[in-house]
Amino acid sequence: MSEHSPAEPKRIPSWYQQLADPWHGQPLSNRVGSRRFRRRLVVGTFGGWLLIAAIVKLWSLNTGGWFIPLCALGVANSTIQLVWAWRRTYVNAPQLADSELDERLVQISNQAFRIAYRLFAPVVLIAWGLSLAALAWQPNNQGQVNALVIFFGAALLATTLPTAIVAWREPDPQTPEESA
């Protein structure tokens, strides 16, 4: 038997409510969820990718093959990139021309791209050096696997970093009572 009587409405879990609320006709500034939720999403995304990369690396060591584990990593990368590209954040939510964005959204977007570039440029240089070292010094296919895992990590960072920066830095949306 169920815990709820037919007359009693079912309670919606709070985690589901946080996912569902942004889609119910709220203004753009309220569609991004709480700061805490967005930060958990950023940490979960990149932490989850590191876990998948470690599993792929162990899988390739165990099987000796590299093609299927790297295909799995490619699918994981693509999935994460699509989720972040379609995620409603300040960087990608307005489907407007730049001239139609208000000044605040333009400044937030530009600042996120500047910070992302400053972080990404040194990461790519380090990743490039590590990839070359892995190719030169590791035997068999493991150097190729390591170089491609590093490449996939850099590609993920390139496509998601500006949006993740905005998601991390933006304050909680204001309710109409707070702004009055």
Q: Measured on Cα atoms, how large is the radius of gyration?
A: 21 Å
**Major sheet:** none
| Structural class by sheet pairing and helices | mainly alpha
Order of helices and strands: HHHHHH
Question: How many helices in DSSP terms?
Answer: 6
Helix content: 55-70%
Structure summary, number of beta strands? 0
Termini distance? 48 Å
Q: Report the portion of residues in β strands.
A: under 5%
Count of the domains: 1
- Residue-averaged pLDDT, rounded? 77
Shape: flat
Low-confidence stretches: none
Task: For the structure shown, list the relevant keywords.
180 residues, mainly alpha, single chain
Description:
There is one protein chain. This protein is mostly helical. The chain has one domain (30-172). It has six helices and no strands. The chain has helices at 14-20, 35-63, 67-86, 103-137, 142-169, 176-179. Helix 3 runs parallel beside helix 5 (142-169) and helix 4 packs antiparallel against helix 5. The longest helix is centred in the middle third of the chain and has 35 residues, at 103-137. The radius of gyration is 21 Å and the shape is flat. The protein starts with 13 loop residues before the first helix and ends with a helix. The mean pLDDT is 77.
